[in-house]
Amino acid sequence: MLKWEKLLCSERERRSASENTRDIRSEFRKDYHRIIGSASFRLLQDKAQVYPLYRGDFVRTRLTHSLEVSSFAGSLGDTVFTRLIEAGKAGVDERVRENCCDILECAGLVHDIGNPPFGHFGEFSIRQWFKDNLQRLKFKGIPASELLTDEMKADFLNFEGNAQALRVLSRLHCLMDMETGMNLTFALLNTIVKYPVGSTEIDASCGDICKKKMGYYVSEKELFGKITEKTGATGCRYPLTFILESADDIAYKTADIEDAVEKGLLSYDIIIRELQSEKYVNKCKNSDEREALSDAVNMLMNSRGSAERLRMDSPDKAAVSRWIIKLQTKMLYAAADAFCDNYESIMNGEFRTELLSKSSVSVLCFALGDIAYRYAFRSDGIIRSELSESSVISFLLDKITSAALSFDTDEMTVFDRDMIEVLSKNFLEICRRACEGKTDAEQCYYRLLFATDCVCNMTDRFAREFFLELQGVKISQNY
Question: Considering the entire predicted model, what is its pTM?
Answer without folding.
Answer: 0.94
